[in-house]
Amino acid sequence: MKEEKFLTLGIETSCDETAIAVLADGRTVLSNVISSQIDIFKKYGGVVPEIASRHHLENINGVLDEALTEAGVTLDDIDLIGVTDGPGLVGALLMGVSTAKALAFAKDIPLVGAHHLMSHISANYIEYPELEPPFMALITSGGHTEIVRVDDYCHCEVLGGTRDDAVGEACDKVARVLGLGYPGGPKIDKIATEGNPEAIHFKRVYLEKDSFDFSFSGLKTSVLNYVNQEKQAGREINRADVAASFQEAVMDVVADKALQAVKQTGMKKLVMAGGVAANSRLRTKLSELCRRRGIDLYRPRPGLCTDNGAMVACAAYYKYKSGQTGSLEMDASPSMPL
């Protein structure tokens, strides 16, 4: 008799993607449906929380139906529901949490809340079936830049984080200054391939000795000052060179600190996570540095770096297997600590 697989439904609505997936046994993706609002927010230059919440409400039932159909299952087949309960935009989070609670109540299915950043880390378990903790994780996204020591599937220690702008925020702001549009990260990454990363020297900020924290607000201001000075002098601005030089300054610091953390803790594995983990320069730089130093680098495909339901289902699965469950009293936590 064939052994039945354990099916987890993962729901992600922390920002502007309405995403639902079905996973078998925590790592095998049966479906991973994402409805993005990027085109909606291009005209605003960023996410408008109230509008994002409204579109989650409009989209979530259709995304759910598509995810179940693609997986070839019904709600009656689902063994566990996982949902992002923080951090994120509170209204957006509530759309996912409310849906998960309703489904769990209606079908009497266990419910687990998944931390958004642990979910990003968990995307690597899907990409690499052989990967197991412990390892070091570098989380880079629109709202987060953190170095995290992951000791097991449900426990971690934050070694450092950003003191001001996250990498993604800095990219969005610089892209706006350069007139590249939204979302800034992919725009910077694309145009930087046409520029010279050594054309303009922007200062690398490492903070105190042995600190794993980050600060990118000064770098962002340096780019703004450079652009304004060039305009005032009547000189043409090479946007590709500015983007490439800015990106190199960011990625130098991010990569150096991640490898410093790996070395200091004696770990042999480094995991990339978050939307900016899809950045081509960061992926290339870390690959080269890790290869030279004998460190195993794990990096999810770009589609698993950005927000998705599969990563949430994976994180929820391991949380449930460790004995942790949620309840129908669950609430959204927009500033939930890791």
Characterise this structure.
This protein is α/β, with parallel strands linked by helices and 338 residues long. It folds into 2 domains: 7-124 and 305-321, Nucleotidyltransferase, domain 5; 133-301, ATPase, nucleotide binding domain (Nucleotidyltransferase, domain 5, 2-Layer Sandwich), CATH 3.30.420.40. The protein is built from 11 helices and 10 strands. The strands form 2 sheets. A 5-stranded mixed β-sheet has the order 3-2-1-4-5, with helices on both faces. A 5-stranded mixed β-sheet has the order 8-7-6-9-10, with helices on both faces. Strand 1 (7-12) and strand 2 form a beta hairpin. Helix 5 crosses helix 6 (184-192), helix 5 runs parallel beside helix 7 (217-232) and helix 6 crosses helix 8 (239-265). The model has no long low-confidence stretch (mean pLDDT 96).
